[in-house]
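so im writing up the methods section and need the SET domain-containing protein record in one place, dumping it here so i stop losing it
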Amino acid sequence: IRTTAHAGRSLIATRPIPRDTAILRTAPPLLAVVMREYRKEVCAHCFRYDRGRNLAVRSTSTGKSFCSEECRGLWEEEVEAELGGDLGEGANGLGVKSWEVVEDFVRRKGTANGAKDVVMHDVGDARPSLEDVSTAWADVKELGEAVRQARSAQAKGDALSKKQRKALNDALDSKSRIVDPDVLSLLLAGVLLRARSESAHPSDISPPSPYHTLLALAITRTPYPTSHNLIAHASSYPILLSLLPSPLLPFVTPSTLCFIPAHETHNSFGIRSLDDSGDEFLGYGVWADASLFNHSCRPNVGKAPGRTWTFWTTRDVAEGEELCISYLGGEEGTLGVQERRKRLWDTWGFECRCGKCDED
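--- predicted struct ---
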């Protein structure tokens, strides 16, 4: 790993690498989101997708689907992993319970709004500035603290004040705030990631916790593609404070909920269908090792996705050459240079200066 002038951290070949050499198999994702639209068709654990067919195993309470009972069991083990005694009484079953309360809320609010699900519309919406981000989060912090105080009073068995009851009602009022199930899923996955990391007991020689691995990835201070998306993220703060089990509330903070998209945006990979040239965008996840690959419109590394990703060289690579993948999912061969650069800028926030773009 070297720092280069044009791309920051880069993977550089330290010796010649022949074509078709496997160079990396990643760990499972730090966090992942299956888009709600595809929740019945994509396995929540291994991300298997079978040409739009509904999967055989369904957890109605969590809204998750699985290709097998084995994957269902593995998913439940993962969401409960290391959520133990340090989180206090009631920590058992905390992960699954969290997904259940969020799914129940989304279903109820979707029905109340006269639709199956609560969705968002971003057409024509501009990317928010840093000032916009600060304003949106400032607007929900006071409500969030009122909700936190109300939850604390509930935990102690105290009667709620009128202000506290109003705060809980306002937090969950989907008519006055944006509810996006996919944003809630991302942020809940991040909260659970932090909770697991805080519950672990690392030694001096332990690797970084999963949450701190996420925080070590490249960051952007303006991760929200639209103002609608920004408000959906900010609205999720009081919603999650209202819904999640009490042991998780210390991890539901504005800083945590801001760090998650700030580190996810430029480091996530799409979960796509493999049977139709990847046309279906099914979700996304953060594979920390894979995020080290920079983009080129003339890549020399191919990738095979799944729960873990495999990377291999697609041609001979010389010593000292950078190892690059394509972020465009194969479309780098059909799009013009302006289209490529626009898509890369809109999605990942950089102007491509690879050899192919400079030539074109």
